[in-house]
Amino acid sequence: MDQKQITVTSPLLPDLDEFQGLLKEIWDCKWVTNNGQFHQQLEATLCEYLKVPFISLFTNGTLPLLTALQALRITGEVITTPYSFVATTHSIWWNGCKPVFVDIEESTCGMDPDKIEAAITPRTTAIMPVHCYGKPCDMERIQAIAEKYNLKVIYDAAHAFGVEVNGQSVLNQGDLASLSFHATKVYNTLEGGALVMHNAETKKRVDYLKNFGFAGETEVVAPGINSKMDEVRAAYGLLNLKQVDEAIEKRHQVAIKYREALRGVKGVRFFDDMKDVRHNYSYFPIFVKAEEYGKTRDELYFKMKDQGIFGRRYFYPLISTFSTYCGLPSSAPENLPVATKIANEVICLPMHHGLSDEDLSRILDLIVR
Ligand SMILES: *Cc1c(COP(=O)(O)O)cnc(C)c1O
Question: What's the mean pLDDT in 68-77?
């Protein structure tokens, strides 16, 4: 019995004929990168769609994190979460700063504001939280702590494309917010990313930094990097933006069906929508308590895999356990009890715009017994 494989995600692809039309325009004008017309259009259109004042496009979602720390001249220690994709902590390390891990809250999988103050030292200069699975962090409390100790806040908002609280984009919180447009994300440009900022001055500095620090033909004002987005991906991004709302709504319907079927399954926890939040349904994590469910997380995970259903254990193992970071004092599992427990319980179920009812039945038949 060769059943179709069901992957955790599937890229949202624009219409190929429309894309070819835009490629033809790029070929005709021969301007393929360096702030071309599609790059400019995509920045303007994204500002409108995301309800943010300024945005700067990048070639992936890791370089905006790296550049955010550069732009704010962050040094010393940066407080962050071990429960994320490894790029979050890598960006701190690449800046020569020391990551300091704090534990997460079980209710959101975001950084626990109660744990932040104890991690602050005289060397702390910034906090880098993650809106994990697109669930907004406790931004008010994080901001209050940042102001009390004069720290910068850089949100890794890679999962939070289009997420709003009370009609306000979460991307407007903190000093900077970073997005990823990788193929696996809700909105993609194949590879891509962006930084969201509050003012034109910061955008100017970020735009310099992503182009080697050039501030004109002959002037280099900072040790910048090359992380510009090209015209081909900007054009692709413009087309995808037209269909992303529909894709999010399809994900919403999948979430509704998962919740209906899983509510009442003993030992399986999942998230409901938060009040006053516009979610993007980027992931559908479930948390398996072996004693109540009767199977461990890994038993379920491998059983699904055997049947061609590829969930992912995001985020296991914790970043703090990787060889570069496991020696840091804050990496001790005793310091991270909630993250350690959650990392051992989580499976992200397949979640994308293309899942059929038949796919969902196959997945749920395996989980619900
Ligand atoms: C995907 C992701 C990134 C990195 O994005 P890339 O575009 O793959 O470089 C960073 N942080 C988080 C939390 C992510 O999920």
Answer: 98
